[in-house]
Write a structure and sequence with these properties.
With 88 residues, this protein is an all-alpha fold. 66% of the residues lie in helices and 0% in strands. Helix 3 packs across helix 4.
């Protein structure tokens, strides 16, 4: 595999972090990381974002009582879902 540009590195970052790349592609990513400090920083920040997101979403899937959620927020979410073609 030829060397990666920063653009290609970013495009396939998710697969790299998830470990879903073939060996050759993984090696190309690691070669790029070793010679491109900005992409290494980006990778580290990406991993931190994933970690932070997991922590933020670990409330045990408890439902929030409806009377604790502002009606305007509920209506906005339902309108956004409808506009996006998602079911309620």
């Amino acid at each position: 595999m030829e060397s990666l540009s920063c653009k290609h590195f970013v495009e396939f970052l998710d697969d790299y972090v998830a470990g879903g790349q073939p060996e050759e592609a993984r090696k190309a990513f690691e070669e790029h990381i070793n010679c491109c400090p900005p992409c290494l920083d980006f990778l580290n920040d990406y991993r931190k974002t994933i970690e932070t997101s997991k922590k933020a979403c670990c409330c045990g899937h408890k439902e929030v009582p409806r009377d604790k959620v502002p009606e305007g927020l509920i209506n906005a979410i339902l309108a956004a879902r409808k506009a996006g073609g998602q079911s309620e």
